[in-house]
Amino acid sequence: MSALREHIEAVPLVDHHVHGCWLAPRDRRGFENALNEANTEPLAAFDSAFDTQLGFAVRAHCAPALGLARHADADTYWAGRSAVAEPDLAHRLLSAALVSDWLVDTGFSAGVTDLDQLSALSVGRVHEVVRLESVAEEAAAAAGDYADAFDEILWRRTATAVATKSVLAYRGGFAGDLSDPTAAEVADAAARWRDEGGDRLTDRVLLRFALHRALRLGKPLQFHVGFGDRDADLHTANPVHLLDFLRLSGDIPVMLLHCYPYEREAGYLAQAFNNVYLDGGLAINYLGTRSAAFIARLLEMAPFRKILYSSDGFGPAELHYLGARLWRDGLATALQGFVEADAWSRADAMRVADLIAHGNARRVYQLG
User: Fold this and answer.
1) What would the pLDDT profile of 81-107 be if each residue is shown by its tens digit?
2) Who's near 44: CB < 8 A, 6+ residues apart?
3) Whole-structure pTM value
4) Within 13 Å and on the Cβ side, how many CA atoms surround 102?
5) Among 268, 265, 259, 306, which residue's Cα sits nearest to residue 287?
6) Residue 102 β-bridge partners
7) Cβ–Cβ < 8 Å for 207, 186
8) DSSP one-letter code for 290
9) What is the pLDDT of residues 68-81, one digit of tens each?
10) Quick one: 332 exposed, middle or buried, by C-beta within 10 A (0-12, 13-18, 19+)?
11) How far apart are CA 355 and CA 186, in angstroms?
């Protein structure tokens, strides 16, 4: 192993966008469904999530962590996994990721660890990312003026949080007006939404309102971008549709999450705007061994001080671990190639690895 690869193997990570992991066991079908991001229904009876890039990556990289042979077949892997208590499995795999800080989106948390439970695993420090749409739904259920309720809830919930996050990509996408609505527009929209039950927020006025209220906090604002489940319209989740909003965002860090298949567009935006950053979380897991090419593309256009690491792990602890494992492999392959071509020095490659692994996140999120 080269000195560069050894360095990348050992570098601590800040996982700047992640969710909780399981602590309770699931049956095999539930596990396989959790290895599919895009399908919102149970997998077809003929299908298996083990026969995907992610499934192969699980067998290649997670099997040894369970004491199994690398590339153990699916049945053997499942038997070995089932023999380990879920909390022990979570501790083992999350510890192996070598993450110093987990920045947890608590907006979607059904069936996974909350902040206290994740902290109790003793696998690194835990910080909260507050989802704006969850704040809006809480405000809709509150009495009195919607805007006042939203502001009170947002300020209270973000007092100790490090960032906010929007799933606008799932609620109509980025295309269209994203300007700050007037107070009258907000009041009218809130009244309509409350009359409808105030459940899942899709009203464009209130979504816009939430984004601009988040900017006022001065904390980083994360956006889901690109690949996700089929509730998102992929063509409207292209970050170039955020151009007008970014022109209004000032110096507040805007974090473009996941990005596939729009990593090049995201890289352009990171170069064009001082406050725009990106990562390759989520996609790295689902691309499996092909994630190395994706990671190399993240390095094409974006300034290296604008790229961060995340896993976007949710549910099976394998996803939290694989995000780190595949990132280390892919980054080492890309940077080693640059060094061997004498295009980069080894010292520069190590420095860039440190920036992406933890340096950029510590600066942007002001982590101690």
Assistant:
1) 999 999 999 999 999 999 999 999 999
2) none
3) 0.97
4) 34
5) 259
6) 15, 126
7) no
8) G
9) 999 999 999 999 99
10) buried
11) 40
